[in-house]
Amino acid sequence: MDHSDDGLRQYLDGRVFDGHLESRLKREIPGGEPVIDPDSGSIHIENLPLSRICLEYALRITGLYRRGQRNARRLCVREHDLPVPGLTEAMRGYRLLHVSDPHLDVDPGFAEGLADQLSGLQWDACVITGDFRYRTNGNAEPALTGLETVRSALDGPVYAVLGNHDSIRMVPRVEALGIRVLLNEGLVLGPASNTGVWLAGVDDPHYYRQHDIVRALRARPDRMPAILLAHSPEAYRDAAAAGVSAMLCGHTHGGQIRLPGGFALTTNADCPRALASGAWEWQGMTGYTSVGAGASVLDVRYNCPPEVVLHTLTPN
Ligand SMILES: [Fe+2]
Question: Calcineurin-like phosphoesterase domain: from which residue to which, for each copy (predicted)?
Answer without folding.
Answer: 95-254
